[in-house]
Known about the structure:
43% of the residues lie in helices and 17% in strands. It has helices spanning 24-37, 50-60, 67-78, 82-96, 123-158, 174-182, 225-230, 232-240, 255-269, 306-320, 333-342, 363-373; strands spanning 41-43, 63-65, 163-168, 199-204, 210-215, 243-249, 276-281, 296-297, 322-329, 344-351, 354-361, 380-382. The longest helix is centred in the middle third of the chain and has 36 residues, at 123-158. It is an alpha/beta fold. Helix 4 (82-96) packs antiparallel against helix 5. The protein has twelve helices and twelve strands. It has a six-stranded mixed β-sheet, sandwiched between helices. A four-stranded antiparallel β-sheet has the order 10-11-9-12. Strands 1-2 form a two-stranded parallel sheet. The termini are far apart. Residues 102-117 have low confidence and may be disordered.
Amino acid sequence: MDVEIVGRLSQTLKRTSPATRIGRGKVEELQELVRSSRADVVIFDDPLTPAQRGNLEKAVGIKVLDRSQLILDIFAQRARTRAGKLQVELAQLEYLLPRLTRQWTHLSRLGGGVGTRGPGETQLEVDRRQVRTKIGRLHKRLREIERTRRLNRRERDAVPYPSVALVGYTNAGKSSLMNRLTGSGMLVAGQMFATLDSTVRRLELPEGTVAMLVDTVGFISKLPHELVEAFKGTLEHVVDADFILHVVDSSYPHCQRHIDVVEALLTELGAADTPCVLVYNKWDIGGDFLGAPSGLRVSAKTGEGTEELLRRIEANITSAEDRLVVEIPQSDGRTRAWLFNNARVLDEVAEDTRLRLVVRMTPRRAGRLREMLAGSNDHRLLS
């Protein structure tokens, strides 16, 4: 949504008004601001109930949006892939359903016509039924996409390389940093939510270690619950990551607020315990006010600090890997092949009828190996 800000109002309240959220005097002040600025829309940085929104629109005479609806509209404009569009549409409808009132005289775009209204059904009931039907269809289509995702996930799990996820507040420069680190040509735009779908690129590190770098959707404060639920499939890359780079816009004066928002969402997703490093991006245009932050200072634009970042990624990956010694029968080609596909084999020695392999692998794959060899008398696993 392209809007130009022509005025701002704020109010500190002990209690919000059930009718308009803001006080009566502030509503009058808003009316005058709308008239004097010739505004076309009013946007609240807080959720509004249907009644509050309706009363405010009557008072000011123009469209009123709350924060959730604004974010949903931006997501709708940015979505490019089929999955992204379906996820946004589902979130919009789930946001709309509890807010349907008689002001929606019909929802023809969701279906309708002869035979769609049963005996005794009001138009509002028809609208709600149509929205629920559309939500059901979207859930079904997204489940089909999820099945494909699960297949792709199994393919990712078969790759022996660790996964590094880029997370951060929206517009922190994650895509720019991915381009700088991997040489890829991802879309970079100075706007919110330019990236809605996860992108994976190969990342080669200084000492030869290879990782998969994943760019994810940007986070934002007070993210609508409907969007968190709709995009959980996309955000699974964060949950599955072996290591997280938390990218921060160091040019933003209040970036600690952004850090707190991202950390809270990581906790909600179940990724709070994943190893993570703070990456203060855009250091070429700001950041002096931060003093000496605990993370790394980089600039995706100039390349400043990126070599140190690559070394830090590699050090964290290799330090987190388990070093194992595996003894298997020479005849067990299946386990040997699995080790070469899922671990870095450092050494392999044949002794009589047995093989001894020294490997390094992520803790997740080491756990899978232990499950595979559990209860076997022919295999030995030494850590």
